[in-house]
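idk why but the lab printer keeps eating my pages so im just putting this in chat instead. protein + hypoxanthine:
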Amino acid sequence: MHYLGIIGGSGLTRLEALEIERRELVSTPFGAPSAPMQFGRLNELPVAFLPRHGGNHQVPPHKVNYRANIWAFKEAGVERIVGMAAVGGISANMGPGTLCVADQVIDYTYDRKHTFYEQDLKRVIHADFTEPYCEALRQQLLAAAGRIGESVVGKGTYGATQGPRLESAAEIRRLARDGCDIVGMTGMPEAALARELELCYANFSLVVNWAAGLGEGGPITMQEIESYLGEGMARAIRVIAALEHE
Ligand code: HPA
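predcted complex ->
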């Protein structure tokens, strides 16, 4: 039996539906993960859950110890990880409330520990990242959504920005020109680190606002974001709970 790894983002600090069997603070050579990992069952599905921003949502995107988090899953024997994310929508089909399983990523982050290959190298290693997400898990998520009649956009390019501030309107216009469909602050280096450890990782994003300059105008408010988080994350969890065991 394999646990499915779930990394909870904003709006998913606690996985209410998870029947927790044990908690474990996994120690790693890269320091502590964001929180103790919770092992349990989501419906029948064995799940290992880690809130990316910590148990009290206290770790901002640029301070997350992405290496420790990904290492902790590997250490726990997890092979498949769904990285949940609340994101801004850029493309016309990515309005608030949309669920998206991204198929590409562009990394605009900086100053983050983004690789495991840093020290004591016997040779230089370049992980292939042509397809940044695990296609098998992407398809499993889309099939699970289909089984429960939840509509999920099956492709999209995730632009990963540094945060914690939101973007300027010009930055979003640039991301749009680059081909980004959604924008978030935590998608990288998480996906690349999972690839370095040969884990099957997929991004599962919930759009919670129009990205800067694209909505009705005016600033993006936390009220707007929060109004989409609760119900949207609940839909995302139902999709994950409908995944087949492996
Ligand atoms: N930009 C970056 N990250 C985000 C956004 C956004 O508009 N909304 C939620 N996370």
